[in-house]
Amino acid sequence: MNHLKKLMNYPPIFLSSADSYSDIWDLFFLLFKKNWPEYDGTIYLNTQEKTIQVEGLNIVCTRVGQLGSFGKTFRAGLDQVKSESIILMMIDYFFVGKVVDKKIKEHFEFFQRENLDSLCLTFQPYPNTIQTTNKELIRVLPPAPNVMFSYQIAFWKKKMLREMALPHENPWTSEWFGSRRAEKMNIKLASIASNNNNPIPYNPAGCLHKGKWLHDAVDHLNTFNYNIDFEERGYFREQPRTIMYRLKTKWMIVKDGLKGSYWDLWKKRPVN
């Protein structure tokens, strides 16, 4: 009986954010409460110095201080989570519909029973998969060097998630190197099998890009009366991917690689 009870508990949420996003915290939690009223676990909101309290939610603000990089901030906040298993979320993943609470519990039970390292709660185009005992879930297998790790909403073993973001990396380079690390480590990864089965409705692109509002998010939020000043952040406008843009992106990866990501990747060995 105790074992079954453990399986059905909600894992804590690790909500990756920063003080620079504090203007959207209220909106995130408003939509969270509206669309997932059943959740009664702990939400670890990763912050530098600011705090927030929301009635009906157990929010722990990590207040890790000004550490100077995404990777350091991410890891320092993650270290405060008092659980071996977590749900990873990013602050701009606003819920756009009701969470299927029953499915979250079922998938978390599967995650624990199968001793997975991660279970992604949204469909992604993984190139190499096999069916599991649950028709709504698939196992993801290497080779998949570009998609084995992402910051999409997912269950994670905390110690494994920590391996995906090195202290000097930003969100983009940690996904790039993290996918390759996850592949070399042969992590036990499962995922939602199709877009029809996503238990948490949200836009995988997020609501913001480079700190500015994406138009899909604006269109959705404008259907409600939330009194949002979109002009304060402004609207993201896609720029042509010129040769200079591609060179800057490549240099960003190489630079973080030289800071230690290449060496870390070379050292990685299978864990399963």
Describe it:
With 272 residues, the chain is an alpha/beta fold. The chain has a single domain, classed as Alpha-Beta Complex (Spore Coat Polysaccharide Biosynthesis Protein SpsA, Chain A). It is 35% helix and 15% strand. The chain has nine helices and eleven strands. The strands form two sheets. Strands 3-2-1-4-8-5-9-7-6 form a nine-stranded mixed β-sheet, with helices on both faces. A hairpin with a 5-residue loop joins strand 6 and strand 7. Helix 6 crosses helix 9 (243-267). The longest helix is centred in the last third of the chain and has 25 residues, at 243-267. The protein is globular, with a radius of gyration of 18 Å.
How much helicity do the residues have?
Answer: 25-40%
Q: Provide the structure class.
A: alpha/beta
Overall average pLDDT: 94
For the record, the count of structural domains works out to 1
**Total DSSP helices:** 9
Across the major sheet, the strand order is: 3-2-1-4-8-5-9-7-6
Helix/strand order, N-terminal first: HEHEEHEHEEEEHHEEEHHH
Report the portion of residues in β strands: 5-15%
Oligomer category: single chain
User: CATH-wise, what's the superfamily?
Assistant: Spore Coat Polysaccharide Biosynthesis Protein SpsA, Chain A
CATH class: Alpha Beta
Distance between the termini: 29 Å
What is the CATH topology?
Spore Coat Polysaccharide Biosynthesis Protein SpsA, Chain A
Q: What is the number of beta strands?
A: 11
Overall body shape:
globular
CATH architecture: Alpha-Beta Complex
- What integer value in Å does the Rg equal? 18 Å
Provide the low-confidence segments as ranges.
1-8
